[in-house]
Amino acid sequence: MSMSTLDFLTDLLHSRLPAASAAWIAGKAEAIGLGLPDSELFLAFSQAIRYSGKAPLQPSPAEIQAAKEIHPGWDIRDWTCDVAARALFMASLPNRPESAEKLLLLHQSADLGEHLALVKALFLAPHAEKAAAIAREGLRSNMKTVFDGIALRNPYPAQYFDETAFNQMVVKCLFVDSPLGEILGLDTRRNPRLSQILVDLAQERWAAGREVSPEMWRCIGAFVDEPALAALQKALTTGDTAAKNGAALGLMADPSGQGEALLRKLDPERAAAALAGNLTWDNLNHA
Amino acid sequence: MPDDKMKTPDLSGLRFIDPHIHMVSRTTDDYAAMRAAGIVAVIEPAFWVGQPRTTVGTFVDYYASLLGWERFRASQFDVKHYCTMGLNSKEANNEALAEQVMEVLPRFAGKEGVVAIGEIGYDEITPAEDKYYRLQIELAKSLNMPILVHTPHRNKKVGTSRSMDVLVEHGIDPAMAIIDHNNEETCKETLDRGFWCAFTIYPKTKMGNKRMVNLVKQYGSERVIVDSSADWGNSDPLAVPKTARLMAESGIAREDIHKTCYANALMAYGQSGQMRESDWSEAAPGAKADLFEGNSILRGGGYDAEDDHLIT
Description:
The complex is a heterodimer of chains A (287) and B (312). Chain A contains 17 helices and no strands. Chain A is an all-alpha fold. Classes of the chains: A mainly alpha (287), B alpha/beta (312).
């Protein structure tokens, strides 16, 4: 891992913690980089919180920007000091494949806070692709904080998940009410299979008289087939404002132009708003 | 029976800790009822989980579940969850397995929210039990952690005395040890020797709550702790608040109820440095998760280095 990641995390902690606590964390990070025996690594990872506390980082705009520049998609806005300290330890692991095995061992005996750090900072660890089991297990977790930790505002899934895992993550977000808009790389990783799963889900929910999230149309518009078009039309004509807006944006995304034509015919006002850029995925309640 | 009009006790504002309860065996309905009854925090000792465990992997998964899943589950009901780590006496008798468990135990003992080594002690009082009891006492000593002692159900009086003898032999300060499952026959010695004296309100077998009221009347509230030990058996997760109510109806002072059903447990296990009243009292009302679902703000406020118990 580049020096700047380690320096950045060390500085973040140094500016927030008492000097002795920051020094303990920095010292352990250095020792981990040199190769610490397993038992000492486990202990350091567990005990980090005794030195870091768990206060939110509350990063400055400059710090938020710096993180993004070090690693695209790195979003420290909701990070806490314990996550940062454990991230520093993870990023400090020696750059060799065996380091992924250490991560898997840490994961096996992780407490709730450690679970969260492991999923949030996994992308910073060397050979992170070899520790994908941690991220996949995070998706299966019933601990919503852990699920959100890997699924939302995290560059790992878009970078490392195969299509099955990525799709599973998107669909589970809809089941546990986590916002799709916070999945990084959603617009580049969406795919025809996901679109089909979501159309089926929409129909299942309509049949059960349940709500259909307007966000799911974001993954459907680009791969419109007949059932998808029918579903978008149904959402556009029967849903509430957010559903109508989501369906409109979905139709606009159809590369064949068929969707846009349908929207212009059924709801010219909404088509105009979408074309003018007044209607966006961040603005689904736009009237 | 007390006259309801005269004696209906005012328990408003009283909060409770159940410092011994096995939530892994309880339902979400229990969590909801416990919170509604005023329980703000629980301690879940690692114990004999009530089903066969024949490989070390099942212990690793059990310990991990106490630290992860159960902690999260409790947070959904605004209950703060802590645990203790240990190899229980029953399973200490499988020596080959016990050796392996002892190897992994240090990996879990130092985790966040682990407030003691326990529950450890004697069941049949075998040499194997004695060996692992002593090894775990030394582990607690090296980590400067409190010890939760399970006293045997059979041969209770002898077993309880011996449990304390061994602690003293290993140089444990009685203020760092909680002796649990006491009864009328054992509590005087436990208190006289300076240990924390816990009582398990467990219907039919261990201690009924009317007997508990009489004990507090006789011995007072100093170093006395009430818990439920509710588990997979015929037990009551509301035993602590119910006993508190009965104490109030029986004229026991509010301060004594506060001590036996809340403050003493906090003081005893707080010695771990892992349990503070601010863990729950500073949480916003309705705050659900230890790590908030919205991920926007965390409870606990700023970090106070002096307040922390550092192990180097």
